[in-house]
Amino acid sequence: MMACNKTLLGVPLNASAHVPCPNHTALPTPLRILLAIIMLFMIAVGFLGNAIVCLIVYQKPAMRSAINLLLATLASSDIMLSLFCMPFTAVTVITVEWNFGAHFCRVSAMLYWFFVLEGVSILLIISVDRFLIIVQRQDKLNPHRAKIMIALSWAFSFCISFPSVIGWTFVEFPSRAPQCVLGYTEFPADRAYAVMLIVAIFFIPFSIMLYSYLCILNTVRRNTVRIHNHVESVCLNQVSKLGLVGLQKPHQMNVDMSFKTRAFTTILILFVGFSFCWLPHTVFSLMSVFSRRFYYSPSFYATSTCVLWLSYLKSVFNPVIYCWRIKKFREACLEFLPKTFKIFPKVPGRTKRRIRPSTIYVCSEHQSAV
């Protein structure tokens, strides 16, 4: 185990950082083994689940819409995260020691930020697209434009994450963390890059997505009230024409708003999952860079292990949401399963007629008549 006062991948610490730190408090062995087993399960689910998402979009031309191309890109970034980052973290959780060399330490840190930033960029694009469609009534994103946005997001993510591999910031061996993490530093340039990285990954996307979803929620609420009032006014006009004898509660006056809210609700759940998984990691990274007391505390290793494990949970979270919320993805997943796994027969569920967003339900004269 490396001492805390050693150099950071060959780059010496500033004088104020040459402070011996107490031995870190590693997690108990049974808990470390349990976390490693859970991480292996997460790797399998994250890889297989996201691979099915990509395969569905690739094999089914009808699924190659702009939003599905974005979801497939999000799944691709999660696949890369599951294959190139999570296994090394799982091994380090068990051994409590980094065994993959100094150079790969920087490479793994760069890949971690790269794939995470790409996934966040795709979520941001989807959120803005939903905002334009529902609030601004502008459907500007087609498959061609989606491909351009995807290419730009990959390039942007690479440009932001690449400096960490060439030594533009302090990335320490995992002597106090199961993965190469941002270390404490007092150099202004290193702190500036760390802040830029964290702001690009969390604060800017979170602020834009939060604003977009609040506007969408407000628009959906106002539209629901407007349609409900329109339905009631139409029904009352029909009742006045028929007289009191024709007064009867219309059959099925419910306004089906699922055509507007279901896709938005799915994206909102992805946003909540992103916030839940990444807010602790953001706070942890900022405190690691700016707080010497926190960085050299004995509990740093246990805290970093839990925070990193939670950040990886997002790659498993997304495909589960797709299969739960998106019917076409769920049906396509069942098609990829071998027949031996299809134990339960397919039960026909209640289906709803698809309607256009411009459709308004009103009471007909037949419904209002006696």
From TrEMBL:
It is found in: Cell membrane. It is a multi-pass membrane protein. The chain crosses the membrane at residues 33-57, 69-90, 110-128, 148-171, 191-216, 263-281, 301-324. InterPro entries: GPC_Orphan_Receptors, GPCR_Rhodpsn, GPCR_Rhodpsn_7TM. Keywords: Cell membrane, G-protein coupled receptor, Glycoprotein, Membrane, Receptor, Transducer, Transmembrane, Transmembrane helix. Residues 49-322 form the G-protein coupled receptors family 1 profile domain. Pfam families: 7tm_1. One of its GO terms (molecular function) is G protein-coupled receptor activity. Coiled coil: none annotated. The keyword Metal-binding does not apply. PROSITE patterns: G_PROTEIN_RECEP_F1_2. GO terms for cellular component: plasma membrane. CDD domains: 7tmA_GPR45 (cd15403). This is Probable G-protein coupled receptor 45.
